[in-house]
Design goal:
This protein is an alpha/beta fold and 374 residues long. The chain has 12 helices and 14 strands. Bound molecules: NADP nicotinamide-adenine-dinucleotide phosphate.
């Protein structure tokens, strides 16, 4: 039986991965092991196994001998861990499969970015060619390709911009807590004015701003207020003025689709005060004028998770929002319409749970592909 180690099972992506694997009854047909950088020796997580079935205690994720004995390592621990352990394991001659949610190895020539509903043929070819590293894509890239990958594949996209609205949870658990703490402080300090229906609205406005800019406002993780605000910068800056998050939209999309020459893709990535789920507004220059109805049909039929939302206020505000999508595998796509610039210019909006299709789900499915189960 194949031995599979899960590193980073406690983090946000790792927890969602565990939840999905339990829900799909995936913990069978292989021997699972769990490893942590901080919890070695503790009890392994509940994987919904048979009563009395015992798992070995959590291993030290830096234990080289333990990792070397694995056939497959699945990690959701982060790029720092990958950069430390992966080269050392490879240098020692370890020849197992490495499945990773972090970005560190994504653009390497000997790595495949996995999103099997979109690039299963690339994955199968790589397995046959002996490639061992299978890496989940950037969350907004994976969600965008689940939504409109079919338009790329059919050669209908000349160029595209993606303006993103990314949730606090994309930055990790601490940032999520910080957003709620910020909301609480704004609410607590405005309670008196809110309770008085006669209070002047500009007084409430000034009060909220004074709270957000006060020295007691918690901004340690985001570096600025996010509640009542937005932050048009995600990840590190690059020499050409883009952020790394913006660059990934171009680089990873073209790598996943094996586009040569690459299709121009650019945009501005923005952190907003949503808890979970990333949203994106696209402007697409089509290679030809295709009717909106045909585009909607192509998108709707491209995979079993995508849903076209009719361009009607009631359905849009109900179904095309982060709150509507949280915890779901569905990928709604809406506001599909031709833009005022002409028939080849298409606008649309999409939302997806960045912890599911944006992170844990492609990793979960990749493990099943390697185990020969799909
Ligand atoms: P995270 O929540 O910060 O978890 C990473 C690690 O932090 C855990 O495995 C755990 O490792 C440690 N940790 C420390 N204190 C913890 C606590 N109180 N609760 C749980 N874990 C704690 O990171 P993440 O958001 O899952 O991201 C993991 C990787 O996936 C990153 O490379 C990230 O870029 C990538 N990714 C994230 C998202 C997203 O939406 N968050 C989307 C796509 C890709 P130990 O058990 O070793 O202590």
């Amino acid at each position: 039986m194949q031995k599979v180690a899960f590193v980073g099972y406690r983090g946000m992506v790792g927890s969602v991965l565990m939840e999905r694997m339990r829900a799909e009854n995936d913990f069978k047909g292989f021997e699972p092991f769990f490893a942590s950088t901080s919890q070695a020796g503790t009890k392994a997580p509940d994987i919904g196994g048979a009563p009395g079935q015992s798992l070995p205690p959590v291993a030290d994720a830096h234990d080289f001998d333990f990792l070397s004995g694995m056939d497959i390592i699945v990690t959701c621990q982060g790029s720092g861990y990958t950069q430390k352990m992966h080269p050392a394991l490879k240098a020692s001659g370890w020849n197992g499969y490495w499945i990773d949610a972090a970005s560190a190895l994504r653009m390497n020539d000997d790595s495949i970015i996995v999103l099997d509903p979109v690039n299963r043929h690339v994955i199968d070819k790589a397995i046959d060619a002996g490639i061992k590293n299978y890496i989940g894509g950037n969350c907004t890239v994976s969600l965008m390709l689940m939504a409109i990958g079919t338009l790329f594949k059919q050669g209908y996209i000349e160029w595209m911009t993606s303006m993103t609205y990314q949730a606090a949870s994309g930055a990790g658990a601490k940032n999520m807590r910080e957003l709620v703490a910020q909301m609480k402080m704004i609410g607590d300090r405005s309670a008196g004015l809110l309770a008085d229906p006669g209070a002047a609205i500009l007084e409430l406005d000034r009060h909220v701003l004074a709270t957000m800019t006060s020295s007691e406002f918690e901004t340690e993780n985001f570096g600025a207020p996010l509640a009542g605000n937005l932050l048009p910068w995600i990840d590190a800056g690059m020499a050409d003025g883009r952020t790394k998050e913006e660059w990934k939209g171009f680089a990873e999309t073209n790598k996943i689709l094996e586009n040569t020459p690459p299709i121009p893709i650019d945009g501005i990535c923005v952190r907003i005060g949503a808890m979970r789920c990333h949203s994106q507004a696209m402007t697409i220059k089509l290679t030809k004028d295709i009717p909106v109805q045909d585009i909607s049909t192509m998108i709707a039929e491209s995979n079993e998770w995508v849903r076209v939302v009719p361009n009607v206020r009631e359905t849009v505000v109900r179904d095309l929002t982060p709150a509507a999508v949280t915890g779901k595998l569905e990928i709604p796509v809406g506001r599909i319409r031709k833009l005022g610039m002409g028939g080849q210019y298409l606008g649309l909006f999409t939302v997806g749970d960045q912890l599911l299709w944006g992170a844990a789900e492609p990793v979960r499915r990749m493990l099943n592909i390697l185990l020969g189960r799909v």
